[in-house]
TrEMBL record:
Lineage per the UniProt record: Bacteria, Pseudomonadati, Pseudomonadota, Gammaproteobacteria, Pseudomonadales
Top-level lineage group: Bacteria
GO BP: DNA repair
Cellular component aspect of the GO annotation: cytosol
Protein name: GMP/IMP nucleotidase
UniProt keyword list: Metal-binding
One of the record's GO molecular function terms: metal ion binding
């Protein structure tokens, strides 16, 4: 991982799930817990549950409603909020994410969380992990009506927080989102090597990736 030119960076934009928090919670929830509980609550087999959920997941991936608990609760006829609480003990920081946050805040960088997570998912996580004090703003893309994948998200962010993309760093574990940020002109971009602690390292295509947050604060 290349070292960052910190003197050229005054704003740090950070994704939450898979970047600061272990993606294991979300992967486990959507791929294991939800199908299992869907099967139980609707009295169908686990295989049938998977068969019913799969096309819904495929149809809605990358759309804002994908991240909307109300959408899924209505679509699946169950309370996604309550089911998430059943697995909330799996919500965890990625290694040294707090060390990184502490260091950039101390260095006087402007730090803003930008997430596609629904406000409800965001609160569920912030109740368990003390992330809020590190940030000047906690922005859910639902506030703007466009997911981070959409160029209009970046226009709305610019109008809201007035940041200089040429002096900003953005870290996100989703490659299409990094590409969308790059198209907007965000100069410093990093992916995440291992967003889910239970899965192996990932190929991050054209993007350099955070391997270890402690390396990132060198030179700060
Ligand atoms: Mg993410």
């Amino acid at each position: 991982m290349p070292s960052l030119p910190w003197s050229d960076i005054d704003t740090v934009l950070l994704d939450m799930d898979g970047t600061l928090l272990d993606l294991h919670f979300d992967n486990h929830f959507w791929l294991e817990h939800l199908p299992q509980r869907y099967a139980e609550l609707h009295g169908v087999s686990r295989a049938m549950a998977e068969q019913e959920l799969q096309p819904l997941f495929e149809r809605n991936a990358g759309q804002l409603q994908w991240y909307c608990l109300d959408f899924w609760s209505a679509e699946l006829k169950l309370s996604v909020r309550e089911l998430k609480l059943e697995t909330a003990h799996l919500i965890a920081l990625r290694p040294d994410a707090d060390t990184f946050l502490d260091a950039i805040k101390r260095a006087g960088k402007r730090v803003v969380l930008i997430t596609n997570a629904h406000r409800d998912s965001l609160s569920l996580k912030l109740e368990r992990i003390q992330l809020a004090p590190y940030f000047e703003r906690l922005i859910s893309s639902h506030d703007y009506g466009f997911p981070k994948e959409n160029p209009q998200f970046w226009d709305a962010l610019q109008a809201d927080i007035h940041f200089d993309p040429s002096r900003s760093l953005f870290i996100d574990d989703t490659l299409p989102i990094l590409r969308s940020a790059r198209d907007f002109g965000v100069a410093h971009l990093l992916a995440v090597r291992q967003p889910d602690s239970r899965k192996g390292p990932r190929d991050t295509a054209e993007f350099a990736a955070v391997e270890d947050y402690r390396d990132l604060i060198a030179g700060l």
